[in-house]
Design goal:
This protein has 109 residues and is mainly α. It is built from 2 helices and no strands. The radius of gyration is 29 Å and the shape is rod-shaped.
């Protein structure tokens, strides 16, 4: 009879330990999903911002190339300044992305 009780206690303990591991695993999964969603959100914002800057760079450089014979010096300067401004935006986005990734990495540790 004692062996049976011991076995029951062992089974109950094993079940409780298994349940605890399942709860911990579920918590870790939820944390990983939350982190993944945060990363997707960060990437989405940067994707939008980068796309806008690249459209500006692409559009104005295309205009300069297509109309270089018929474009005034002032217009060339204005378009080049807009291209330069878009590049500056890209640098700021890159700096921000680096900072966000550093924060994200330090939160995971």
């Amino acid at each position: 009879m004692k062996d049976t009780n011991k076995t029951k206690k062992q089974l109950i303990n094993e079940l409780l330990e298994t349940r605890q591991r399942i709860v911990e695993s579920e918590t870790e999964r939820k944390q990983a999903e939350f982190q993944l969603e945060r990363l997707r959100s960060i990437v989405g914002v940067f994707e939008h911002d980068i796309s806008g800057a690249l459209v500006t760079i692409s559009g104005y450089s295309e205009l300069l190339l297509l109309n270089r014979d018929n474009t005034s010096e002032e217009e060339v300067t204005r378009r080049l300044q807009q291209i330069r401004d878009a590049v500056e935006i890209l640098w700021k986005i890159l700096d921000s992305l680096r900072e966000d990734l550093r924060e994200f990495s330090s939160e995971e540790s």
